[in-house]
Design a protein that fits this description.
mainly alpha; Branched-chain amino acid ABC transporter permease; transmembrane; two-stranded antiparallel sheet; ABC_transp_permease; transmembrane transporter activity; globular
C-alpha cells in the first residue's frame, strides 16, 4: 500500500510539472495556432536564473526560494515576450517558418546555456522542509511534491479566471474567433497575443524552478527533456485544450511512474503506446475539437 501511495504522489507531482510546461504550449497553440519548440528554453533559463537568485539570498531559506519562483516566472515571461515580438509576430500564418525558427532557437539556446553553465548538472539545495518527507498511509512522500501540485493547481485556476473573467481574456478569445472584427473595433489584438506568450513563458519559468527542486539539479537539458513529455501531454489532451492538458498531464505521469516500477522501467515506451492509441481512436485528442 505504501508503495502505491508513493508512486501516486510522485506521479501527481510529475504531472503537475508536465502541466506547467504543457499549459503554455496548449494556451499558445489554442489561441494563436503557434507550435513553439523553444518553450523548453524558457523553462531552462528560468530554472538557472531563478536558482542563481536564490543563491544570492540564501538558497536554503524560504525567502530565497520565493525569490527564485518570482525570478524564474519573470524571466520566462520576458524571454517569451521578446520571442513573440522579434521572431513569431512576423511569421503569423507561416507555420513552417515558425517551426524552423523555434527549433533553431531551441538548439541555439541549449548550446548557449552549455557555454555559460557547462554541460554537467548543477545540484541544488532548497528550504529544509522541501527536502523532508511527510508520512501518508505508510509512504514517506517528499514535501516538494505537495508544493508543486498546489502551485500547478493555482496556475490552472489563474489562467481560467484570466481568460473567462478579465477584459484582456475576452479580447483574446474574441480575437481568435474573428481577428478582423476585433481590430475594426479599435482593439489592439497583437498586444493581447503577446500577453498570451508572456503567460505561457511565466508558467514555463515557474515550472523550471520547481522541476529543479523535483529532480534536485539544473542543467541545460532540463527543459528539453520535459518539453518532449509536455508535447505528448498536449497532443493527448487535445491541442488548445487547457483542461485536456491538465487531465493528460496527470494520466501520463501516473502511467509513466507505475509502468517504470511494475513493468521494468518501460514508462516512456508505454506513454508512446498511449499516444499512438489516442491518435488512432481520437486524432483530435481527449478534449480537442475535431477538425
Amino acid at each position: 500500500m505504501s508503495t502505491f501511495v508513493l508512486l501516486l504522489a510522485t506521479g501527481l507531482g510529475l504531472g503537475a510539472l508536465y502541466f506547467l510546461v504543457a499549459s503554455g504550449l496548449s494556451l499558445i497553440y489554442g489561441l494563436m495556432h503557434v507550435l513553439n519548440f523553444a518553450h523548453g528554453s524558457f523553462l531552462t533559463l528560468g530554472a538557472f536564473l531563478g536558482y542563481a537568485a536564490a543563491q544570492r539570498l540564501d538558497a536554503t531559506s524560504w525567502f530565497g526560494f520565493l525569490a527564485s519562483i518570482v525570478v524564474g516566472a519573470g524571466v520566462g515571461a520576458v524571454v517569451a515576450t521578446l520571442t513573440e515580438l522579434l521572431l513569431i509576430r512576423p511569421l503569423y500564418e507561416r507555420h513552417i517558418e515558425q517551426v524552423l525558427v523555434t527549433v533553431g532557437l531551441s538548439l541555439a539556446s541549449v548550446a548557449l546555456f552549455e557555454g555559460i553553465w557547462g554541460t554537467d548538472p548543477d545540484f541544488i539545495r532548497g528550504p529544509a522542509w522541501l527536502e523532508q518527507t511527510t508520512t501518508l498511509a505508510g509512504a514517506r512522500i517528499p514535501n516538494d511534491r505537495f508544493l508543486i501540485i498546489g502551485l500547478a493547481a493555482l496556475v490552472l485556476l489563474a489562467i481560467v479566471v484570466f481568460l473567462r473573467r478579465t477584459r484582456y481574456g475576452m479580447v483574446i478569445r474574441a480575437g481568435v474567433e474573428n481577428r478582423a472584427m476585433v481590430t475594426a473595433l479599435g482593439i489592439d489584438v497583437r498586444t493581447a497575443f503577446t500577453l498570451v506568450f508572456a503567460i505561457g513563458g511565466a508558467a514555463a519559468g515557474l515550472g523550471g524552478v520547481l522541476a529543479a527542486h523535483y529532480f534536485g539539479y539544473v542543467s541545460p537539458s532540463l527543459g528539453g527533456g520535459l518539453l518532449i513529455f509536455a508535447f505528448i501531454v498536449t497532443v493527448i489532451g487535445g491541442l488548445g485544450s487547457l483542461t485536456g492538458a491538465a487531465i493528460a498531464s496527470v494520466g501520463v505521469a501516473l502511467l509513466q511512474q507505475f509502468a517504470n516500477y511494475y513493468a521494468g522501467g518501460t514508462g516512456d515506451f508505454v506513454i508512446v503506446l498511449a499516444l499512438a492509441a489516442v491518435l488512432l481512436v481520437r486524432p483530435s485528442g481527449l478534449m480537442g475539437k475535431a477538425a
